[in-house]
Structure formats: structure tokens, C-alpha cells
Amino acid sequence: MDIETLVSKLSLKEKALLFSGKNNWETYEITRMNIPSFFLSDGPHGLRKQEGKADHLGLNASRKSTCFPTAATIANSWDETLAQKIGKAIGEEAISQDVDVVLGPGLNIKRDPRGGRNFEYFSEDPYLSGKMAASYIKGIQATGTIACPKHFAANSQETRRMASDSEVDLRSLLEIYLTGFEIAVKESHPKAIMTAYNKINGVYANENAFLLREILKQKWGFEGFVVSDWGGSNDHVLGVQNGSHLEMPSTGAAGANEIIQAVQSGELSEQILDERLSELLTVLLKKKTSKETLSSNQESEHHQLAKEAALKSAVLLKNEEAILPLQRGTKVALIGEFAQQPRYQGAGSSLVNPTRLESTVEAIKDYPLEVVGFEPGYATKTASAEATLQKKAIELAKQADIVLLYLGLDESSESEGMDRTQFSLPSNQLELVSALKQVNPNLIGILSGGSSFDLSFDRDLKAVLTGYLSGQAGASALLDLLTGVASPSGKLNETYPIRLEDTALSDHFPANGKAATYFESLFVGYRYYQTAGVPVKYPFGFGLSYSKFNYSDVKIGDNGVSFCLTNIGNFDAEEISQLYVSTRSTRNFRPKRELKAFVKTFLKKGESKIIMLPFDAYTFRYFDTETNQFEIEANRYQIEIGSSSEEIKLSATIEREGTTPEGKKQVEKYPHYFSGQIKQVSLSEFETLLGREVTKREENLARRKLFENDTIGEMQFAKSVLARLAYHILDYKKRRSEKKGKPNLNVLFIYNMPFRAIYKMTGGQIDREMVMGILMIVNGSFWKGIRFTLKARRHNKKISKKILEED
Length: 807
Ligand code: BGC
Prior knowledge:
This protein has 807 residues and is an alpha/beta fold.
């Protein structure tokens, strides 16, 4: 039966049910018509299939699966083949665990180093993000499993994540925040996409017709289905109307009832409903459902792949006196708690229960080193014995030629649901570095952390190798690199600024009012530092090797650029070459340079290769707000080939014909966007760019009426004493857990969620009407609110019975 016929045979109630989840992870089945239920599971770097108590914050256990390095790590490999292999492995594990849709990869742009989920995202650059995501998706979908890239779009902070409006000018939205998704959609055809929690320019992502219909469907030709983030559907009917298909998790019968009412009242046409349902079922019913279990052999193959991924993604940042690789038999002291308890993934919905977990303390036994001992040196949770730990580490360091010092961001500083508050490593780790330096100058820092942090302490280290969050097999991968089994070949997917004050958003991140103002426009990451001339610690695209490479013979043609790459060192190794484009214009402001292509090449020592990097649809384009489409400006362009964004090895120029008539000069209108001096952008300069006024921050902290899209945390301003008391209890719990160094994700989630989410996250127990009743109580009408809530509860039960139980 074709899909249209199938849809025409469904009752309105059956159709309506298919637009919401049946529970936390599954869709409804319609047995009568042979429509099965489908299972959706996190996540980006390994499967998190929950079979017991379900939650979307990684709090309860899930089945074991391979924990690959997180996206932030894999992006350092700049290796699309590798990303595709990982995607395929995740897809295979999904099949063996009966999962139909993998909720990932995540490809939001890292706007600031403090973004809580940066570790789950690929890069500060849309081109690199898009290419890596496309490869992942190709891999996942090659197995028949559906990939669901997320979070579409402009979702770059965790604070108030469900109640924040990303105010971003159209050009930056398209060039920075959407280009990665565009590449992924056009190159890998994901069969699903997850919308973000936030609003974009005033409209929730899940009901944003501009994003979902105009861009995703019409411009990019997306043919999959759209799913809300968990609890992220605001107005379900409007969502369906504007291009969303599935709200997750379950809202019981209430979601279906909203659709039924809307169709019956004529608010939503049944024709649109049928269209959406056909789009959804076309994808789901085509999904292959051949169940295979993962053989134990495949389990070790995936572990090996996790190791390969960690090895190809680690970045060597410093190697003074060529202290690395370590010589056979070197006498080393192993110091740092993370050598024993690895920091290998981040917290939240992406948390994987690994099939195995390597630790350096164990893994090092297989390497030809003389290990004089291990000492944790610091505690990851505040411990009173800190001084003793340090003392023991110092004693151990004295006995060795070289100290392998494992440091990094701790788990509590990187998690979904909260943004980082610190840019530095914990002080106990920094104190340990200074103390060890006094007794042994040969310190080698092996770092973990899913985002950039203050590395000024590396003046005390001879070498620095960062593994980011390197997954379950990270320990042996890094030891392979340290001992020279292979050369490091990763390069940074993001910039490491010198100080937090140097970042474009230093005083503005995260936004804790209703709107996050993206006043920096295009100037994210290296686009900012380089244009504004701000020196950085380690630039985007940077990474050392044990070998050396020579770049020569650049040739430019209309379709691309070629050059010769030679390995002139003493080590077989891989090199990542990057192509940047820049042009000077008085019509359109431009970042100093932008990444437009890259390639990773393996060369044996002494070997040379001619490398060709073709231009593509993204190489010269910019978004023109007057013609409302991407255009090419008639101009002379500089094509640069670099080993990083700052180390340009070759360059050539090329003239391009334009696609748009000569525009007006805009330098006077946007002086600071032309100079890149983002910190000097005035409100009016940004508002001119945005084309409207920004949402003003509510300075008035007085008691006020709260609405369904105000956050629970805003109960501090509530009119009711009870509500304020509830706020204080929540706030106390939040602060207490933060103080303990283990933030309570559940509490944080509740704190930042809007009242509306009570309806969206309680599986139908509480519906929208009941939330209205709760709000009456919060707003000071206690008895009226109680009566209203109770009445709504009775009604909800009746509807539930009618929709879920009656035939
Ligand atoms: C996260 C998503 C995740 C979903 C399901 C949400 O809180 O933002 O990335 O896929 O939960 O766990």
C-alpha cells in the first residue's frame, strides 16, 4: 500500500497520535495498519539506549555500547573517512540494540569556550562542522539506521536553554549557524533532524517556518522528518503546521488531543496534517528492521576503532627539545588522577555506558617504559588530603627522568544543562604543576577536556598532548603517541585564547536574560581573533607532528588549487592542510580569512604528493541581505594554504566575476564589523545589522506575573509566597550541589526550564490547562488555581481515557 493510501485509511485520532512520542524514546504503533513503533536513542558518540528508567539527562543506566571520542575530539582529526567509520559502527550497534533513530551528531557552533555542550559539538567553524557531521551521518545511514543531526539551530548555550531567544542577524545565521547544517543535509541526506530548544529571532525552532520550510525543505531539499528536542515543542499545532513532525517525549493523550481539536476547529487543515504524516511515514516505514546482535568480535573491532579515533584526534600542542616521543626504557612517573580515572566523555544525554574502559595506569604496563610509580597528585572532588596527595606526587617525580602528568577539566565543569563558569583548570591541578616543576623540569602534560581552557600554565611543561575527551580506548591511543608508535596528527577545531578576557563574548556569555544577543555577528572563534588582531595561545587548525612538512608549487585554476606536500622529517606521518579564502571589500565586511577546504594526507618520510583542493559552492559565497540569497562578490580573492589558520605556507590570488550588481559601500554603516573590533560594536550598530531592536533585558526585578514560557527559576519574582519558597528550595539545592563540585543536572534542568515544559515532560500526567492552573497559584491566586488545576486534571483524565483507551 502506498503511503497516501495508508494515510487516507487512518482515523484522525490515529493520525494525531503519530505526531507525539508514546513514551520517552518510542513512537506510537498503529497495529491495525501494521505501523510499528520506532525507537529513538542518544547519541552522538555512542549509543545510550535506556531500557529501564528513562531520562534525557544521562542520569539512569543505559545498555553498554562503545564510547567513541566525543565530536569535539573527532573534529580534531579532520578525517572524514574516520568520522564515517565511527558513524557506521554506531549505526551497527543501533541495529543490534533495536534502535531505529540515533539522535546525533550534534553540530552547533561553539560560540564561546564556556558553552556547556561544546564537547558534543564539532567546531567553531561551520565548514569543518558540516563536513564532519556529513561523514558521521553517511556512516550511520549506510547501516539503514536513521541519523538525526541536532540541534537545529543557533543553540550555543545551556543557560536558559529552553527559554532563550537567539537574536542573530540573517547573514550570520546563514553563513555561520546554518552552513554546517546545510552541508550535512545536502551531502549526507539525513532522514531526520532535531530542532533546538531555543527561539531564533523570536520564534521557537520547532515552529519556525522560515527554518523548517523555507530553508530546510525548500532551499536544501531536506526529505526527512523533524523531531523536537525533548520537551522543546512549544505550540504543537503550530509546529506541525510549520514543518515539524514529531514532538518528543510523550505528552500522553494531550498532544494528540491538541491536533484533533485543531483539525476539528479548522485551525489546522487535514491536508497539511496528511502531508506531514506522509513525510514522516515515508521515512520511517522505509527503515530496514533487520535485527543483528553485535558479535564479541565486532565489540573488539569497535574498541579498536575507538582507539584509532582517539589516536588520530589527539593534538600535540608543544614539544620542546623534541622531548617526545619517549625513548624506550625511559624512567617515567605517572601522576594525575585522570591517569587512573580517565576523563573520557562529558555528562548529560550523550553519556555512554562503555563496553570497556582503559586506564593509563593499567595500559602503560604494555609499553617499553620504566614506570617508577603512580600518584593521583590531586583529587577531582575537593578532598581534605590534598596536601598529602601533592607531597606524594612530588616524591615520586623526584625519582623519574620524565613526569607524565595527566590533567584536565573535571566532569563537573563540562556538562549538558549548564555552562562553564571557570576558564582555568581547577586550582589544585595548577598548584601541582608549579610544585612538580620545582623538582623535575621534564613535565609532559597530557590533557583532557572537551573545550578550550586557559593553558598559560604550559610554560611549566616541556610538552603538551591533548586528547580532548578521547573515549573508552583513549589511554592506549595516547600512550601510542607518547612512545612514538605513531605521530600525533590532530589539529585544533577551535582556538585556545590566551585569557578569557580575549574572547569576543568575555563579559556576555552566557546570556541570562530572555535573549542571547549575537552581536559578534560573523566574528566567531578565529574569525574574531584574526580580524581584530587579538593574539591567541593556540590558533584554530594548529597541531604539531613528530615530522616536518614542506609546502611548494602552488598552482591556481578556476576550479581549485594544487600544491606539493613533502614529508621532510624522520617520521611517517599525516598532515592536515587547510585552504583559507579572504578578500577585502568596502561593500561587505568579511573575516580576515575563512576555512573553505581541507585535506589530511599520509606521507612516508621523504615522500611527496601533489594535492588538489577543488573550490566548491561555499568557497566564494556570502549571504546578501538585499538580494536575500547567497551571492559572489566580483573581486580579487586570496587563496591561502596553511598548516594552521595562522601559519600560511602558500598563497595565490584569483579574480572572480560577481553574481550581484555593485552594492553600496557599507564601511561607514558598520565600522566595527569592518575592523572586527567587536567589543566596540554599539547597540545601534548591531540593531542596524539585525534590522530591528533587540529584546531589552528586564531590569525590573520586582514581583511580576509569570507566563508559561517564563522559567521555573523566575519564580523568585513570583507574587505567591509559596512559589518564592519553592524557588528558594530549588536554588538551595542547586547551590549546594554546585558547591559539592557535582552539579545536580535534574535541578539545573528544572531551574532553567519554562513552566510549559512541565506539560511537555510529564508523559501526559500534567497537561497545558493544568500548567495554567499552576501558574494561577504562582501568580498569587491560590484557591482559584487549585480549583482550576483539579478541574483540568479531571478533564485530562477523561481525554486520556477517550484517546488512549477507547477504540
Ligand atoms: C538533549 C538532546 C537529547 C535529548 C534526548 C535533550 O535534553 O538536548 O540532545 O538528544 O535530550 O536525550
